[in-house]
């Protein structure tokens, strides 16, 4: 992340994507602003006034969901909120990654800070203190339908804030929540009217994963431009299709950016200059080379749409019922995850297609009939050595999985709560699939990086472009160059770590300038 933050102050206004990433990934501490405290105090006063009203108010003096017709007497309402949190903390399966949970807690805190949920300022302070102390509630993967918010994941967080359930500390050690809060000097939440709803009725898990995905996919699309440039160069392709005046005839912003990256990465290549002669009879390259800016560009434009949705959501109040500035308390459907579920699914499609094109470029290197003079499978002694043959198998297996993960989760719906919640978004599932897909794309691009760099080295004594040469040098710090067959898995894992650390993009940018 380019921006460095030492502290995030949560106020009534929206957080920025950079602030969410900083808290989620870098452990940046959090503080509630005075304006947020004042807004919450005003909202809480409205809820307190409703608590003594004989008329029923959802979540204040009634049950929840299909049980909303049950009137709850005043002496049972504290138990009502605690029971809601305990019963809804029903997740199962593996633990959700700490960065996702931290993002989820921060985003729920941001909604509380608007004052529109009626939560107590003390509750928000506990959430902020947990984040600052590095205490992360244990949230299980399965349990959210993406409607009425991410109920089970948020319930696990609320349970921990109340001193129940489990948390992991900043070192990843598991503790009972009550003991961890006490050790950190944090007062557990004592829930009052409506607070159970305020802590559970959010799309924060979906939004947190979307924001983290946007951060990661931005870097991976730049990496895809880097690996595509390496492949175009080493496969003796042409950069003519990337010319500014050519791509400007179809001026999608993402395409223009991707083509600009490719031009700068390939500028000054002796490899490409070597076949700009009358003897070269090829007039155009295969689609996986020639159309890289169009595919990578469309991916960028889709990502821009997803970012716009995420930024609108950062300014939203997601709760039910919600307190309006004029004093009304209204039930609503803002907790439905459709706006997020759709773009999460859309990005999974993008990831699968970018990976698919990368795999097709890799495959061209390994086929002597299409690699324009490179040895079969880039092997040192073909026949004795298999070279990088099976690296493409690994890549193909990953791409196949990514295609399955691209099946949209948001088209599914299973009714719940005795048919009260009869249409749900499955946006949480879409987000989980996207996280897996991004990990797969990272591995796919790492394979292309390894293969393309070996292919480029086999073009010696011709020299690559300064930009691609810098990327090749950087990879050679982690993965050795051509030679007889050796154990390949550690090299592919090292290349994956290299991509995950964003080294190819950084190495290229040091020579050609910041990539778009």
From TrEMBL:
Gene3D superfamilies noted in UniProt: Fumarase/aspartase (Central domain), Fumarase/aspartase (N-terminal domain)
Entry's localization field: Cytoplasm
Enzyme Commission code(s) on record: 4.3.1.3
Keywords: Histidine metabolism, Lyase
Pathway(s) the chain acts in: Amino-acid degradation; L-histidine degradation into L-glutamate; N-formimidoyl-L-glutamate from L-histidine: step 1/3
InterPro entries: Aromatic_Lyase, Fumarase/histidase_N, HutH, L-Aspartase-like, Phe/His_NH3-lyase_AS
Pfam hit, one: Lyase_aromatic
Transmembrane feature ranges: none
GO MF, any single term: histidine ammonia-lyase activity
Catalysis: reaction(s): L-histidine = trans-urocanate + NH4(+)
Family as reported in the entry's similarity comment: Belongs to the PAL/histidase family.
Name this polypeptide is given: Histidine ammonia-lyase
Species name: Aquipuribacter nitratireducens
């Amino acid at each position: 992340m380019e921006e460095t933050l030492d502290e995030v102050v949560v106020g009534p206004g929206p957080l920025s994507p950079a602030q969410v990433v900083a808290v989620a990934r870098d452990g940046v501490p959090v503080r509630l602003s005075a304006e947020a405290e004042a807004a919450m105090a005003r909202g809480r006063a409205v809820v307190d006034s409703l608590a003594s009203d004989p008329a029923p108010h959802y979540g204040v003096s009634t049950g929840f969901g299909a049980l909303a017709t049950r009137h709850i007497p005043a002496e049972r309402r504290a138990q009502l909120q605690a029971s809601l949190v305990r019963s809804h903390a029903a997740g199962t399966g593996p633990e959700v990654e700490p960065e996702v949970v931290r993002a989820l807690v921060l985003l729920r805190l941001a909604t509380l800070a608007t004052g529109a949920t009626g939560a107590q300022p003390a509750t928000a302070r506990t959430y902020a203190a947990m984040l600052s102390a590095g205490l992360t509630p244990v949230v299980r993967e399965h349990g959210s339908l993406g409607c009425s918010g991410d109920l089970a994941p948020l319930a696990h967080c609320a349970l921990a804030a109340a001193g129940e359930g489990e948390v992991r500390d900043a070192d990843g050690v598991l503790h009972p929540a009550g003991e961890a809060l006490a050790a950190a000097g944090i007062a557990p939440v004592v829930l009052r009217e409506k607070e159970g709803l305020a802590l559970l009725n959010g799309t924060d898990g979906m939004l947190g994963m979307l924001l983290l995905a946007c951060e990661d996919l931005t870097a991976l699309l730049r990496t895809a431009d880097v690996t595509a440039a390496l492949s175009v160069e080493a496969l003796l392709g042409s950069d003519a299709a990337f010319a500014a005046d050519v791509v400007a005839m179809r001026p999608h912003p993402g395409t223009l950016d991707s083509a600009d990256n490719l031009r700068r990465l390939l500028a000054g290549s002796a490899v490409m200059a070597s076949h700009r002669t009358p003897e070269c009879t090829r007039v155009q390259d295969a689609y996986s080379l020639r159309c890289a800016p169009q595919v990578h560009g469309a991916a960028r434009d889709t990502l821009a749409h997803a970012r716009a949705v995420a930024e609108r959501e950062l300014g939203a109040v997601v709760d039910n019922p919600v307190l309006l500035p004029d004093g009304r308390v209204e039930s609503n459907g803002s907790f439905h995850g459709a706006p997020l579920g759709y773009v999460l699914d859309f990005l999974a499609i993008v990831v699968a297609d970018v990976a698919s094109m990368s795999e097709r470029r890799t495959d061209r290197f390994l086929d002597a009939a299409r690699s324009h003079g490179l040895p079969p499978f880039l092997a040192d002694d073909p026949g004795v050595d298999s070279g990088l043959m099976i690296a493409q198998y690994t890549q193909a297996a990953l791409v196949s999985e990514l295609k399955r993960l691209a099946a949209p989760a948001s088209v599914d719906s299973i009714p719940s709560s005795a048919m009260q919640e009869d249409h749900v978004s499955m946006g949480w599932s879409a987000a989980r699939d996207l996280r897996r897909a991004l990990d797969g794309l990272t591995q796919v691009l790492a394979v292309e990086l390894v293969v393309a760099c070996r292919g480029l080295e086999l073009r010696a004594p011709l020299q690559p472009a300064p930009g691609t040469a810098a990327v090749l040098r950087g990879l050679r710090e982690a993965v050795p160059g051509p030679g007889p067959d050796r154990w390949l898995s550690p090299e592919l894992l090292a290349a994956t770590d290299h991509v995950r650390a964003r080294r190819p993009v950084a190495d290229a940018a040091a020579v050609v300038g910041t990539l778009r």
